[in-house]
Amino acid sequence: MSTAAGGDGPADATLTLAYDVLVIATGANYVSPWREGPTESKTRDEREADYTAVREKIKASASVLVVGAGATGLETAGHI
Question: Which of 16, 32, 50, 72 has the fewest CB atoms lying closer than 10 Å?
Fold first, then answer.
């Protein structure tokens, strides 16, 4: 990975970092159907319909990418 270096060096200087694994952690937000906004809630039937729709999309997919290795990402990957 190369990027413009910060600090006191010249503006066109670069810093190269070698890595085996790159993890980009951008925050903790859940995407529907697992959780709606903090003030929103759905009925059980509405949630079940959402889960069924997602389940069908997953079954129809050639591949699935789960991004995240926190509790939610690992649990989701395990269930898939």
Answer: 16
Give residue 15's domain range. Answer: 2-79
34-79 tens-digit pLDDT: 566 656 677 889 888 988 998 899 899 988 888 877 887 888 788 7
Contact predicate 41/47, CB 8 Å? no
Return d(Cα 48, Cα 52) in angstroms, integer: 6
Block residue for tokens 């070698």: 18
**What's the rounded Cα separation, in Å, for the pair 41 and 43?**
7
Number of folded domains that form the chain: 1
Closest CA to 56 of 35, 22, 80, 72: 80
Q: Which residue has the tokens 């999309």?
A: 57
Q: Which of these, 78, 77, 76, 62, lies nearest to 33 by C-alpha position? A: 76
